[in-house]
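user: Kindly work through both lines:
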Amino acid sequence: MKVKRNKAFFSISAVAKMFSVHQQTIRLYEKEGLLTPKRSDGNTRLFSEDDVNRLEEVIYLTHELGINLAGVQMILKLKKQIAKMQKDMNQVFDETQKQLDAETESSKQIIKTRAQQLHNLKHHKAITANPSEKTVTQAAETEEQPQLEIDNWDIEYDAE
């Protein structure tokens, strides 16, 4: 039995202590749209694990790499677009693989059918070339199979 765990939420003071930043800095990031913490009934900010991870990324970009908030917004927006594009590409690859598998199976069936037809044609030619050498088994086989009209085959070519 799997126990459902409630998600943990952190207050702004706990998050500020985690990253050694001032609460006002976190409020600024929220004001700029970089963070969107949930709110309690009393309007207290509640930071989820995802919010904490996002804040960690914002702090890394601003404090460690020296990127301004506009740059951080652009980076996060581009990361989101890249993730969506990657998801779309993976879906296209999956669909293409399914089509390729279906076409491969269809080709295998066609090859198998054509091989059987060639075998039957070869067998038919061998019998008609030496009719005096027919065995009892070959005679029975030719009676069961339809006669092929080899001389009257018409080949059509697609004109482009």
Observations:
- The mean pLDDT is 84.
- The CA atoms of residues 38 and 46 lie 5 Å apart.
